[in-house]
Amino acid sequence: MWQAEGMTEAVLLVGGQGTRLRPLTINTPKPMLPVAGVPFTVHQITRARDAGVTRIILATSYRADVFREFIDDADLGIEIVIATEDEPLGTGGAIRHALPHLTSGPDDPVLIFNGDVLTGVDIAGLVRHHEATNSDVTLYLTPVEDPRAYGLVPLDESGRVIAFLEKPTTLEEIVTDLINAGCYVFRKSVIDSIPSGRPVSVERETFPGLLAGDSLVTGVVDRGYWLDLGTPLAFVQGSRDLVLGAAPSPAVPNPGPSLVLGGSQIAPDATVTGGSSVGRNVEVRAGAYVDGSVIFDSAVIGSGSRIYNSIVGAGAVIGSNCCIEGAVIGDGAMIGDGNELLTGVRVWPDTNLAALTVRFSSDRT
Ligand code: GDD
Ligand code: MG
């Protein structure tokens, strides 16, 4: 395994609000939501650790307290330093804010990770490419079918980045299917050049600025597993892929059809399958069927209920004979017997939906 001399540091950007995952992110920041049994951030930290990173700066802002509480008690075999912005400084501002915590030399490579991306990318290979090409910044790129929600990164034939188009709005801007996959290697001195004390977007300001100057920015295309866990459906897919072993993580040593944490009771005739992940002290009652879903701690799934591709928040109670598919049930919500909640439905925390109040089935008349 690669263990670069001097290159031991990384910055993990975890300060975003995770708006698209509301209501789950009202109480818990996105990287701290449980995915395949542990907070999502643990998958990223342990992958970085296994690639030889020995020190990570967690760049926090939104709900920094939740990270602090977790990291204080966690032993992940890597030094973790928490840097908290008083006001969110954006992606570039957060990297600049982490600078005083970095001990690397000016020419050393520093890894930067977006905190919501699940990937099997060869981190060591990325750093090797960065050093072999003597790049100022190296970007990890992946092809996607619809690149509009991302940063587009066209390359020339030598692998040099020629533009950075964040969230293109016109057809003319869609010049490639290669997107910024949310992991970079920066020469440390490039971080010094980001302005401090004000919000900066690395995507809209820093990268275009470097390209307009004479910096060498290169791209590494990796066609392996990649997923941004920004939406509820992507979130359940990421968790499912980790549980099943389709996405690699040192924090999931034994992939299988499901993952059930301690203290949970699954009725003998209930089924938990399809890469579902069940937290602690959950009750899955008689005849219930849970497929490809994430059930947070202390939730209850009533007898005969079917849960597909959904997220059930902590302490939520699903009554009996419900059908929940592609939905997000907030923490502590109560869903009465027989409800049917289909794709796109989001129930806010502590909502109380009485029995049979919502029906979206095709046979409603
Ligand atoms: N500390 C800190 N402070 N972190 C932040 C801030 C901030 O003010 N704003 C965002 N972040 C973190 C988020 O928590 C996330 O981990 C990361 O920075 C990227 O922000 P997102 O809000 O998730 O951006 P995005 O998904 O719309 O787009 C980004 O990721 C795409 C790949 O998933 C961009 O980097 C795109 O270019 C890229 O294609
Ligand atoms: Mg994102």
3D architecture notes:
The protein has 2 domains: 9-232, Spore Coat Polysaccharide Biosynthesis Protein SpsA, Chain A (Alpha-Beta Complex); 257-360, 3 Solenoid (UDP N-Acetylglucosamine Acyltransferase, domain 1). α3 (90-98) crosses α6. By secondary structure, the chain is an alpha/beta fold. The protein is 19% helix and 27% strand. The protein has helices at residues 40-50, 64-73, 90-98, 123-133, 188-192, 202-212, 232-244, and strands spanning 9-13, 34-35, 38-39, 55-60, 79-84, 109-114, 117-119, 137-143, 151-152, 165-166, 178-187, 217-221, 226-228, 258-260, 265-266, 271-273, 276-278, 283-284, 289-291, 294-295, 300-301, 306-308, 311-312, 317-318, 323-325, 328-329, 334-335, 340-341, 346-347, 352-353. The termini are far apart.
Keywords, separated by commas or semicolons:
30 strands, binds guanosine-5'-diphosphate-alpha-D-mannose, binds magnesium ion, single chain, 365 residues, 6-stranded parallel β-sheet, alpha/beta, 7 helices, UDP N-Acetylglucosamine Acyltransferase, domain 1, Spore Coat Polysaccharide Biosynthesis Protein SpsA, Chain A, 7-stranded mixed β-sheet
